[in-house]
């Protein structure tokens, strides 16, 4: 049997027509005890590359509803009108809050059945034979609703005030720490000439950012994960630099980068962007979306002078407020004459994040090809970057220290 069994007679054979991706993934259940109902509907729904539907008999339905916290709630449920759909509806309504769209598929065109189904909470009734486009429309609306309600991930940018301040090491470590804290995280290296993120991660990239931007308009969630490289820790990243011998610096499209960031935000909790080269026209969409901008300086007059100019540009060109811009003093040392209070006064900021100078640890990490948080997690350097991580995650430094003391107490 095919979907044509249920469709009107003038419909073409749908089983041979592949469908374009929906706006986002749609996961659903097909509730029936009859394989003759499940199979043709499953085959048709599988024509979309980003749908996943699971057949549910009575036992599987009860089990699925009892384990919603582990398995997650479906986006839509199709119920066979030949089964005891009243019982199925009662089970679903008792277990599922809020209720997802439920579609009753039946050969009974009685208007009393339609009224009864709608009173029970059924969103729509497909009467066999139905128009294939009716089924398509249900999936379109489901994907649109899910996309509109998806929580957007936060964007955090790390920028050097001037060259060599260390934003790449900091952004990579912070992205790794977020991943270790079970946040789904993407790290983007925008430097097409000197980007070093893949080297810091000791993982060669599968694709470059330019490759992703070329196909971004047709990219769905599965394609996005395909162009991102996955580190052994679970961190996903993409770089811009090519190792080809004869390779010119690509021209990136600001519009394409905007779409790429929107896709990434819809599927990940945190987007960390290493913009070590500073402001560039094509990367401006990141600045319009950013929740946090970390400017990396060191205790030197040229670095602080450049940071002051950069902060002024961010405030006047992009409308940033004081609290959105954080200054990180990298390689901080008490022995250097330029003190934190002087940097605060010059940059008109109330808070500095001090990352201590630890050349030995950073050098050992780079030479061993190991991330700082993997083998040097107890150093003051990593502890300072963990505080940056908690700021990004929306937790104050004081709260994070209190939690660490609490968990230390529990372990003692």
UniProtKB/TrEMBL annotation:
Pfam (any one): AAA_31
Domain Response regulatory: 27-143
A molecular function (GO) term: ATP binding
InterPro entries in UniProt: AAA_dom (IPR025669), CheY-like_superfamily (IPR011006), P-loop_NTPase (IPR027417), ParA/MinD_ATPase (IPR050625), Sig_transdc_resp-reg_receiver (IPR001789)
Biological process annotations from GO: negative regulation of cell division; phosphorelay signal transduction system
The keyword Transcription appears for this protein: no
Modified residues (4-aspartylphosphate): 80
Coiled coil location: none
Recorded GO CC terms: cytoplasmic side of plasma membrane; cytosol
Alphabetically ordered keywords of this record: ATP-binding, Nucleotide-binding, Phosphoprotein
Matches recorded under PANTHER family: SEPTUM SITE-DETERMINING PROTEIN MIND HOMOLOG, CHLOROPLASTIC, SEPTUM SITE-DETERMINING PROTEIN MIND HOMOLOG, CHLOROPLASTIC-RELATED
Protein name in UniProt: Type II/IV secretion system ATPase TadZ/CpaE, associated with Flp pilus assembly
